[in-house]
# Entry
Amino acid sequence: MPSTAALPAARPRIAVRRASALALMVALCAITGAGAPLAAPSAHASFSVGAVVLAHAGITEQSLPVALELSATDVARGYVDLPAAARLSIVNTSPAGFALDVLPVGGVVAAVAVDGAGGQAVFDAGGGSIVERGVRGRGIALALGFRFQLAPDALPGRYPFPVAFSVRPLAD
# Structure
């Protein structure tokens, strides 16, 4: 039969630890003289901080065709016009301005003339940049129209829009 004898009450360990810690702190204060004012020489230092903020440019397509429709008449003529086809919004923090990179893609276009942004720029299939000097801010609106000079082997049909854009800040 199991024993039912009462065990002696255990001392609370937390109270013992707290009392020991308090006694140790009082002893250390007495030995080191803590609590007495300490005299220390005052010191003074100064330094300067500088920061360089890098210029940033970004682009948002507000309106851009998803496709280019080529008819037999367009192919026979050798070009197709899309006036006011794209609206872009530019963000630029560089006081020097920005460059809008125009990149023909897809192979159906031999050259592209871009109207807007203060004039007309013509690029071959390798593309190029339209530079806007001294223009910075948020929501810089660009309305662009295009004349696509078709590649000699272009056929009538529906093609993905043959131009991609990127933007970069100009260096000061």
About this structure: Residues 1-8 have pLDDT under 50 and may be disordered. Strands lie at 57-63, 67-70, 79-92, 97-104, 109-116, 119-124, 128-133, 137-150, 157-160, 163-169. The radius of gyration is 38 Å. Helices lie at 13-32, 72-77.
